[in-house]
Amino acid sequence: MARYLALRVLQALWVLWAAFTISFVVLFALPSDPVSIAADGAGPGTPVDKAAIAEMQARYGLDKPLWDQYVTALGNAVRGDLGMSIATGQQVRDAIGDAIPSTLALTGLALLFAVAGGVGLAFTASYARRPWLRDALAALPSVGVAVPTFWTGLLLLQLFSFHWRLAPAFGGQGFAGTVLPALTLALPAGAVIAQVLTAGLETTWRQPFVDVAVAKGGSRWWVQRVHVLRPACVPALTIAAVLVGNMLAGAVVVETVFARAGLGRLTQTSVLAQDIPVVQGIVLVSALIFVTVNLAVDLIYPLLDPRITAGAARVAADTSTDGVSADAAAEADPSAPSPARIAEVAARG
User: Fold this and answer.
1) 346 closest CA partner among 135, 202, 243, 199
2) Fewer CB within 10 Å, N or C, the chain?
3) Which residues make Cβ contacts (< 8 Å) with residue 85, sequence separation at least 6?
4) Which element (helix H / strand E) includes 233?
5) Phi-psi region of 33 (alpha: psi -120 to 50; beta: other; left: phi over 0)
6) Cα–Cα distances in Å, from 213 out to 123, 222, 333?
7) Measured between alpha carbons, how far is 64 from 49 in angstroms, rounded to an integer?
8) Best CA proximity match to 246, nearest among 301, 295, 184, 197
9) Distance separating alpha carbons of residues 345 and 195, to the nearest angstrom
10) Using CA of residue 221, residue 227, residue 232, residue 238, what is the dihedral sign?
11) Angle CA(84)–CA(90)–CA(92) in degrees, nearest 5?
């Protein structure tokens, strides 16, 4: 278990470094520079002092070689110093701290809706005895995935805000102001969870241990709830963790449609201003949330299916003693699910 946890932590650190590095390279590859954009904010035709621009570039370290800027920025980020906004002069840490509570509340509620709706739909579809009803319920997630997020938001605004006046249209706070944006984010995410969980339930129902449980006289409801649901949840749990990153990205569109202040709106304005410290800080914080959620999911895996860590331990032992590869060990023991098996089931869903 300790080796399993150590590998996951190393993977999380690698993702954080990669996110910071890629965002740094992409932002500095843009044709313009943030100091010039900030200077143009005074309006077209306004004379700009070149000495003042040079002084600003020196203040933010933009006059140094690119590699020197990267090493300095990475070292500051490791110490928790994300720098200062070029556009506003505010500390990046404070700007993100002001914006992130609203976005976390939005994505948290959206994830709750997505998991509840996706699990409920998949469970009902696999439990239904009539083939036509099962096929109809299983086809609903494809519709949810195909619908664009902005269209869903506009439709919810039209119905619940303008027509029925049940929720505020723009900039609402609290649960009433968050429920419509959360539903907008939750619909495609819940559809993906339902697709993957439905495939997982169907695959688990064909396992021999399920036949044994049914042969012992267990009802269909009891067998599905006690024996089928836990191992079938592993691929869906993986997808749910990945969807957290998609929700953070989708918050840019949703917060724009519903005129909500949050991390998405801050991202939009910072990208337009090419405010490199703020954009890098947002990327780093989003990556930190993403890897934290995925690390938590990795720790939940053994609770749902102990064969995961047991299978990994057997593979490591076989590799160290007999030189058997991980793939060969997985083929020899198909009862131990692997990440490749999880991805295969998710793709088939």
Assistant:
1) 199
2) N
3) 91, 92, 95, 270, 275, 277, 278
4) helix 229-257
5) beta
6) 18, 9, 22
7) 20
8) 184
9) 10
10) positive
11) 50
N residues, the chain: 349
Residue 347 pLDDT greater than 50, yes or no: no
- Residue 279 · residue 270 · CB < 8 Å: yes
pLDDT tens-digit map of 278-293: 999 999 998 998 888 8
Q: Which has the closest alpha carbon to 290: 15, 21, 4?
A: 15
CB neighbours (10 Å) of residue 168? 19
Structure tokens at 155: 């439709």
**Sign of torsion over alpha carbons 117, 123, 129, 132:** positive
Looking at the DSSP assignment, which residues form a beta bridge with residue 345? none
Q: Using the structure block, give the residue that is written with the tokens 């720098």.
A: 83
Per the CB < 8 A criterion, the answer to whether 234 and 200 are in contact is yes
Q: Using one digit for the tens of pLDDT, what is the confidence trace for 123-168?
A: 888 877 788 888 888 888 888 888 888 788 889 888 888 888 888 8
* Token output for 132: 């036509």
